[in-house]
Specification:
- The two termini are 26 Å apart.
- It contains 5 helices and 12 strands.
- It is 24% helix and 30% strand.
- It has one domain: CoaB-like (Rossmann fold).
- With 225 residues, the protein is an alpha/beta fold.
- The chain binds cytidine-5'-triphosphate and calcium ion.
- The site of cytidine-5'-triphosphate has 12 residues, from helix 3 and strand 9.
- Its EC number is 4.1.1.36, 6.3.2.5.
- Its cofactor is Mg(2+); FMN.
- This is Coenzyme A biosynthesis bifunctional protein CoaBC.
- It catalyses: (R)-4'-phosphopantothenate + L-cysteine + CTP = N-[(R)-4-phosphopantothenoyl]-L-cysteine + CMP + diphosphate + H(+); N-[(R)-4-phosphopantothenoyl]-L-cysteine + H(+) = (R)-4'-phosphopantetheine + CO2.
Length: 225
Amino acid sequence: ARGAGTPADLAGRHVVVSAGGTREPLDPVRFLGNRSSGKQGYALARTAVARGARVTLVAANSELPDPAGADVVHVGTAVQLREAVLKAAADADAVVMAAAVADFRPARYAEGKIKKREGQEPEPVALVRNPDVLAELSAERARPGQVVVGFAAETDDVLANGRAKLARKGCDLLVVNEVGERKTFGSETNEAVVLASDGTETPVPYGPKEALADVVWDLVAPRLA
Ligand code: CTP
Ligand code: CA
């Protein structure tokens, strides 16, 4: 629901948000995954609905309830997420990649459960690269003027890593989070800097994920074609 003072600056717009973390199966019972809860992406979807947008949420393995008013597409793997995001992006004004997409997946999927063998060491798990959805969206905009936003969780030289990543990915905005043991994953709050391709940097103070989501839409709205 729109609160008093919520802008309707996304009215008539279609926005796509990816959320959660992909899981890359090894066998019918096991996967390679990550700790993304989906909370930031779901907050982006809810705030975009509140600001008047038509929202497609591509949700990877999140246990959160579907946000009211959004079209939710549930996916498992990075390959499935790519397919769903590219399909929804075809007529989108903006795409926000908040999902944690696995960089690699197991090279082989075992149709039967992998068993241990008496006296044998395990085989190493061979991995292959997954497609980079954000780079692909940025390089081949489905619509002229489509705004593409990425997220990056960094450690160490957070800002320098973020600037290099923004340039490498070719997106319009990159939301950079510093991660640590008690920061970001599964938490209700976030702290970030939003880097833009025009060189501007918007610090976002420690606060709820909804507040960061609203800052992202505040930066997306004036960039819409
Ligand atoms: N991303 C993506 N497809 C991938 C990997 C990442 O679309 N295969 C997107 C994420 O959704 C996020 C952004 O790219 O919006 C940055 O993800 P990140 O993991 O920080 O970037 P990488 O290029 O994978 O760099 P790193 O080697 O640091 O993991
Ligand atoms: Ca990565």
